[in-house]
């Protein structure tokens, strides 16, 4: 399906910069002091840092997890209220301001299915799975295809541990992930022109890489609903749209899947989606990024700076469109 209208996160770099500036905390504070123009901003950021948090999730006792010091940042951690309130979650609408609507997501119980090319199909409640997994905290940069970025302490577990649990057959080449699609609780699904459910995929090699992470929490607490509770993918070397939220199904297959955005506009959003400053999006540059919560625009790095972990995955794939 080809959608001609511009989607919320498909905005030119200049406009992206404006949005990030809009979120600058100091400006927000100045604005708050100034009064009326601020009502929309105050609404946007919620009434407090944990306004849309998930402290009462059934696995709350597992947080905070010990930090894995192998993964270091080159910039300060983004202030917590920004990732919690500046959100892309199309199932709840196409604006960034969907943290409120996302609270209708019912995460208890949450059935997860593992199927396709596996030794045996498994259905398990996500919270039971989380209790079986080796939770740790990792500091990762996150680079959205819209040219903004943030640095977040994720809690979760290596995706490799998930593969060990699921036991895919050796003939499986891809893992396909699917988000819940529930019309009763997800108002965004009324946008019938999108190919719901949201689907993403990785090769088994990518999913086995050290960096591939299944997120179950952020900032030392369980994952807020708007950020993809109870479990989501975190692939920091790829554009953010690969990091699928609120997963209900993992299917193992030998066929490359067509992901949600690729299905909508394959000429702009590919399967690989690795970050590369030298390959512009057809409608804007990817050379630099606006760091959320600052006035800074910094150069974007190839593989979002994670080349030492992942570059080898792609050395025999020269003919592929690896960077879109
Ligand atoms: N997953 C689902 N199911 N639906 C979405 O709309 N948006 C993606 C990704 N995962 C999205 C999704 C995009 S474009 C980005 S940048 C990240 O989620 C944003 O994650 P965050 O809101 O936690 O920062």
Helical segment tally?
A: 9
How far apart are the termini? 18 Å
Could you spell the SSE succession in H and E letters? HHHHEEHEEHEEHEEEEHEEH
The CATH class name reads Alpha Beta
Shape: globular
Oligomer: single chain
In angstroms, what is the radius of gyration? 19 Å
The poorly predicted ranges are 1-6, 11-50
Structural class: alpha+beta
Please tag this protein with its features.
Sulfite Oxidase, Chain A, domain 2, binds ligand MTE, alpha+beta, 324 residues, 9 helices, disordered N terminus, 12 strands, seven-stranded mixed β-sheet
Describe how the helices and strands are arranged:
Blueprint: H1 13-22, H2 25-34, H3 39-45, H4 81-85, E1 111-116, E2 122-125, H5 126-132, E3 136-143, E4 148-158, H6 159-166, E5 174-179, E6 199-203, H7 204-208, E7 213-218, E8 221-222, E9 232-234, E10 247-253, H8 260-264, E11 288-291, E12 297-299, H9 307-310
Parallel strand pairs: 1-10, 4-11
Antiparallel strand pairs: 1-2, 3-4, 4-7, 5-6, 5-10, 7-8, 7-9, 11-12
This protein binds ligand MTE.
Ligand MTE binds next to loops.
């Amino acid at each position: 399906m080809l959608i001609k209208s511009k989607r919320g996160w498909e905005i030119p770099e200049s406009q992206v910069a404006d949005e990030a500036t809009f979120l600058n905390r100091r400006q927000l504070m100045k604005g708050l002091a100034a009064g009326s123009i601020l009502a929309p901003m105050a609404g946007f950021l919620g009434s407090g840092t944990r306004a849309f948090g998930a402290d009462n999730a059934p696995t709350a006792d597992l947080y905070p997890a010990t930090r894995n010091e192998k993964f270091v940042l080159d910039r300060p951690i983004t202030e917590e209220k920004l990732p919690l309130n500046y959100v892309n979650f199309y199932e709840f609408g196409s604006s960034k301001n969907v943290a409120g609507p996302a609270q209708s997501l019912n995460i208890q119980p949450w059935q997860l299915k593992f199927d396709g090319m596996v030794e045996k199909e498994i259905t398990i409640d996500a919270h039971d799975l989380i209790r079986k997994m080796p939770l740790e905290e990792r500091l990762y940069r996150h680079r959205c295809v819209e040219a903004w970025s943030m640095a977040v302490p994720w809690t979760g577990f290596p995706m490799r541990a998930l593969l060990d649990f699921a036991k895919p057959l050796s003939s499986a080449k891809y893992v396909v992930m699917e988000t819940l699609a529930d019309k009763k609780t997800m108002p965004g699904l009324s946008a019938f022109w999108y190919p719901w459910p949201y689907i993403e995929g990785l090769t088994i090699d990518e999913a086995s890489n050290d960096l591939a992470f299944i997120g179950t929490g952020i900032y030392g607490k369980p994952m807020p609903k708007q950020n993809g509770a109870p479990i989501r993918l975190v692939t920091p070397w790829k554009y953010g749209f690969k990091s699928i939220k609120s997963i209900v199904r993992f299917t193992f297959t030998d066929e490359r899947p067509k992901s949600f955005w690729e299905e909508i506009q394959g000429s702009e959003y590919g399967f690989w989606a690795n970050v590369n400053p030298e390959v512009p999006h057809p409608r804007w540059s990817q050379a630099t990024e606006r760091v959320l919560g600052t006035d800074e625009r910094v150069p974007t790095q190839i593989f979002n700076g994670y080349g030492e972990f992942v570059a080898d995955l792609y050395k025999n794939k020269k003919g592929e469109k690896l960077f879109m």
